[in-house]
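Each record in this resource describes a single protein on a pair of labelled lines. The shape at a given residue is found from the number at the same position. The record below illustrates this layout:

***
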Amino acid sequence: MADANLLFDYTGHLPECPTWSEDEQALYWADIMECEIHRYVLSTGEHRVLQFPEEVGCFALRENGGFIVALRSAIWLADSRGLLQHKVCDNPSNPQLARFNDGGTDRDGRFYAGTFWGPGDYNGALLVRIDNQLRPKVVQCDIHGANGLAFSEDKNWMYTSDTPNGVIYRTPLDKHGEPQSREVFRRFNAGEGIPDGAAIDEEGCYWSAMFDGWRIARFSPTGEQLAEYRLPVRCPTMVCFGGADRRTLFITTTRENMSAAEVAQYPLSGAIFTLPVEVAGMKKLPFIER
């Protein structure tokens, strides 16, 4: 079984939302707490950092260039330099208590962004969708920390995780892509880690970053664990497929809320890793505006 390797000499605070651009052969990711989007070109080692005025929970590349980006207070369209151009909608949660977190696009190029309920006193987070006409709609509630968004190639299923509650859900989608009643895909016990960001491969299997679990896990479409890949850091945050053949798994990790002693013991916390895999991942679609 292959080992994970460092992408390059970088460690962030809370790297998330790795996104591969096939056109650019470049990896993008957010550092939420540093209010940044990063771009790294594998062939040249060029590393560019875009600064935003608030925490960048998640983003997607736009079909015609630039980003759709979920900042703490609102979702915006931004150009390729990171300059905000148009506010799509305000954060439908209380932005003082719930920042945006995990998100991405479905198989029709619509953008989904979930929130994380900071107080933790109840499941106060939600999942909002921005359609191709820039219309927002809250599609799920009763969430503590939205994560793990992924969609099956046949458009029949949406996968999400609720990280603090240690559960992955799958939700059937109707012919219009509207979510129906979610169902439990898999729950996790103490010591297994809790499911964070995710991606789906061409065989329909779900790859989850197991936060606090030192590993990435691959699950069948019915929830059976098929494989795991150990990491030298405790808290991976998200995965995406990329590379020329989409057989490289890019893994973001974090050092958020770690003590100085733990960071000293595990200095790669916050780094980005690559892992060669045998099954190609599904292409992540851009956000499509019509």
